[in-house]
Specification:
The chain contains 5 helices and 6 strands. It is α+β, with helices and mostly antiparallel strands. Strand 3 and strand 4 form a beta hairpin.
């Protein structure tokens, strides 16, 4: 299914279900948000990567305007509701200041694999323990989705963008597992080396070998 959507390109990836706070200051995007609030309509954030607007993005709804400033700027709270692919991009929507485009709404499978989910949580805990960030590790529900943890894995913007494009939860889980299986041993080794470096110059209490 396709539709025309106001677009707000940003150098981020927003995942379905994610809540996003934005400060709106440019005249074109102030117009976009004002119309979205007045019409109770959605808008899209296509990811801006490598000096260009990506083909994929996320549709969002405005939850509320948190604060209005005297100069017309706004702090808003939004929530992502789905993923789209840009079919046609207009740098300026007809009769508007902001960009727009015809987009195809994509179905996003959320079923996933239970065993993959268990391994992701296990490796994620190992990663945070190795980084001494246990206090930052969130409490995950049993049926958590890949999108729930995607911003907490140390992925690059490009990797997050690849995850956004993937319509299968199982495929997203496999991508996350591949990343964690590669990075966790590296972090463990880095921490081991750090401890070894700290020991240099210290008095060592060593037991000689018996022979």
């Amino acid at each position: 299914m396709t539709k025309y959507l106001p677009l707000f390109p940003l150098g981020i990836v927003v995942f379905p279900g994610e809540k996003l706070n934005l400060h709106i200051f440019e005249p074109r995007y102030k117009q976009l948000i004002q119309e979205s609030v007045a019409n109770k309509s959605t808008f899209g954030i296509p990811s801006f990567l490598q000096n260009g607007i990506g083909e994929y993005g996320t549709e969002l709804k405005v939850l509320r305007i948190e604060k209005k400033y005297d100069n017309g700027e706004m702090d808003i709270k939004t929530q992502a509701v789905g993923v789209f692919r840009v079919i046609r991009l207009d740098k300026q929507a007809p009769g508007r200041l902001y960009p727009g485009g015809e987009v195809e709404q994509l179905e996003t499978d959320l079923a996933g694999d239970v065993l993959f989910r268990v391994e992701i949580e296990k490796l994620l805990r190992q990663l945070y323990e190795a980084l001494h960030l246990n206090s930052l590790l969130m409490s995950l529900p049993q049926d958590f989705k890949s999108f729930d943890v995607a911003h907490h894995l140390g992925l690059s913007l490009e990797q997050e963008y690849l995850l956004l494009q993937c319509q299968s939860e199982t495929d997203r889980q496999e991508m996350i597992l591949q990343h964690l299986r590669a990075i966790v041993p590296v972090v463990h080794e880095t921490e081991r080396l750090k401890e070894k470096v700290k020991m240099n110059g210290h008095f060592k209490h060593l037991t000689p070998p018996a022979f």
